[in-house]
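User: What would this chain look like folded?
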Amino acid sequence: MDREADVTVSESDRLHSQLSRCEDMFPGYRAEIVEGAIVMSPVKPHHNETIWDVRDLLKPQLSLEWAFISDVAVPFDEINEFCPDLAVIPDVERRKNRSAYSPDLIELAVEVVSPSSRRNDYEVKPRAYARRGIPHYLVFDPYEAHCVMFWNPGPGGYRGTDTIAYGGTVVVETGIGKLTIDTSALPVDPSAVS
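Assistant: Here's the prediction, encoded as structure tokens.
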């Protein structure tokens, strides 16, 4: 837990300020810095509903030492500042109520796919999360009706992935305990392939 982010707090505050201005200018969109570019993603009801459902399923399984952050800046390097849909970090850190947190605090990162975020969620973020040693990364996709679980991080990306169709149970063996997520009630976009 003593690893530090590569981006200083002042740089992080500057980047976060830019993101906040973008979100204020475009209500209904979420902003992140991905590979040096500000990326705006529209947010639909299934997106937030999935985040809330996953949080509600995980919360009773976590000890009081762990907590969630959601859509809070996590600077990775000079060209990437992500805002994970959901991340599990030590509660003592969450209580500091910062505008940005180090990726080195994250035990589990969760993203929910939006139509415009596919590449970022499936390609860019897994590489960045794995390089920083985030042990577990889950991508919930209401358009494909599945969850992709990434595990065993390395410098080139995650060495293991599993795809669990909605209706199944996602089981994540973490350093903070075994976490399970029943996907049967997660929202599925009407365009999803059956």
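Residues 60 and 179 are 10 Å apart (CA to CA). If you want, I can go into more detail on any region.
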